[in-house]
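If I may wish for something, please walk me through the protein I am sending here so I can picture the backbone:
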Amino acid sequence: MVSPIGTETMKHIPLIALTALLTACGGGGDGDNNSQPNAQMSLAFSDAPVDSVSKVCIAVSNISINPVTGAEQNWTTASFLTSAQDDGCTPIGESIPLDGSGHPLFTYIDLLSYQGSASRPLLASQSVVPGEYSQMRLRVLDGREVANQFLDGTPYSYVKQDDGVIKPLEVPSSELKLDAFTIAANGLSAFTTEFDLRHSMVLPGHEEYYKLKPRGVRLVNTTEVATVRGTVSAGLCGGQLTDKAFVYFYDELRPEGDNAYPDMADSNNGFYASAPVVLNNGVFGYELGFVELGHYDAVLVCNGDEDDPELAGDALQQELVVKDRIVAAPATTIDFQ
């Protein structure tokens, strides 16, 4: 059995965003490309609050982009900003190994150190060629591989729980493949890759390690997204909102006229993303960033903490449905009263 992140293990699930900013004109990078670059790319990481876990440390060693036509372009830690910064992830008495060129083998990012609007820049003003790209790949070292461990046994990529226990973070093939995208010429293109950990990270039944899966990861154009937030009446869900209730968003992929709203394992049937209901200054509410502009149904789910991302067909207790709301930039409010 697989435990969803968001039950006993994690209560409030982070939405981690890798932001890619692409602007026109010049720059530099350590990837080879025979085409003439005339755009720039920058990358940064950010996230949102999470409970029951104090660190989610990922070891990033390489970023590459693959044009539909042309050669792959990649960047190592030699091009990363603040590559020496480790966010407190390196174990005491250990140091990040160096590659053959004397650069750090990887750069640490503690995803929980960059919440809300805060971010960790990783690449800035890197020359790229405008056009169609089939994918972006992030090399995140798999914490379960013996080769990816410090001498004291600490995995390079890991999750530290509130009880102090460190568990490896498995990243299959040490790689995250992101969606196709387009880099505009002579203009500004900005992208955000969202990591919805509630959807993409699970703790298998043996509870020996966490596993990061590619689902729940979306690449969106940040010039065409908005933040959705709202309040939730304290009396809904029988007053049992904290650590239990979530707001689910469903996009236009959901069959027209279908009144059924699937759980998050059924992402091919309209499930888009979810946000936990939290208590802030005496008011219950939620917030979901980087939502693509368009039409959505929003559903208050009272037992969202029980939704298993590995198992389709979980019975969701749907308290209130707000149908066909238009999400517009820069922010949209959808309340549940």
